[in-house]
Structure formats: C-alpha cells, structure tokens
Amino acid sequence: MSNSTMEQLPEVFVDLYSLNAALLIFKMLFVAASTGLLRLKKKISPNPEDARFMGQDAPASDDEDIARVRRAHLNDLENIPAFLFISYLYLASGPDEGWATALMWTFTVARFAHTLVYAYYPVPQPSRAIAFFVGLFICLFMTGYVFIKHL
After folding, report:
1. What does CATH list as the number for 10-32+64-150?
2. pLDDT tens digits for range 1-41
C-alpha cells in the first residue's frame, strides 16, 4: 500500500483539486503566452537582443496593454501557488465536501474574473479588488482551518 497523501484523499477531493489546479495553471500559462504574443503584435521588445531580432535599433518601452497583462500575470504568480499549496493541505485535513467544493470553485472563478477585469477587459474598481479579496479570504480561511484542525 502506498503512503501517498493524494491516494489517501477521497476521490472527490482528488478530482476537485486536480481540475481546479489544472484550470489555474492553464490560465497562468495562457496569460504568460499572451504577454509575449502582445509584444510581437505591437512590436515592443523589452531587451536589446529581442529588438535586434525584430529589426529594431533599441528596445521599446512597454505600453499600457502589455503592462496590464504582465501585472495580471505577476498577481497570479503571487496568489495561485499559495492557493495550490494551502488547498491541498485543506483537503488533506478532511473538510466538509460541500464547503471544499464551494471554496475551490469560488477561488478559481475569482482568479479568472480578476484576470479578465484587469488584463483583458478593464472595468472600474472595485471589480478587480473584489475578485482579489475573494481569493485572499478563501486562502486565509483554508489556512485557519488547517491550523485549527492540526493544533
């Protein structure tokens, strides 16, 4: 018998974690790739070697569209790995299936919404802040649950 923590989780939690993790990682990779594609489309190179490759004399400065996508990607890099780690510990702590499902999907939807309203379809605040804080509160809740469960 294997001692893998993933194998010890109920199958519903393995499926829940795997699907949400895959969606969030796909989104991060998509945003990273879209930054590069936007640079190519706008012919904005960040480095001298890229400028030479694109037939330019010097690197161009970023424009607002590229900067927005980069900031959205940075925000993902600051939030999604933490969620992937704490949500795994949360699921391994034996939470209620309904709560776990709601929290996992709400975080995933909030991160997609954050990227959409920040990088691709900017809308006035507080839309981005709401999406950010929903995800943050979910991570804090899961962290607190793990602490309490294992004290």
Report:
1. 1.20.120.550
2. 344 556 677 788 999 999 999 999 999 999 999 998 998 88
144, pLDDT greater than 80: yes
Closest CA to 20 of 148, 149, 142: 142
CA distance 41 to 2: 50
In this structure, what token pair is assigned to residue 132? 């950010």
Q: How far apart are CA 70 and CA 151, in angstroms?
A: 39
Contact 90, 142 (CB under 8 A): yes
Q: Is the overall model pTM greater than 0.85, yes or no?
A: yes
Token pair of 28 as six digits: 């991060």
| CA proximity to 114, closest of 99, 96, 104, 127 | 127
Q: Which residues contact 68 (CB under 8 A, 6 or more apart)?
A: 118, 119, 122
Distances (CA, A) of 59 to 43, 48, 105: 10, 5, 41
Name the residue ranges covered by the structural domains of the chain. 10-32+64-150
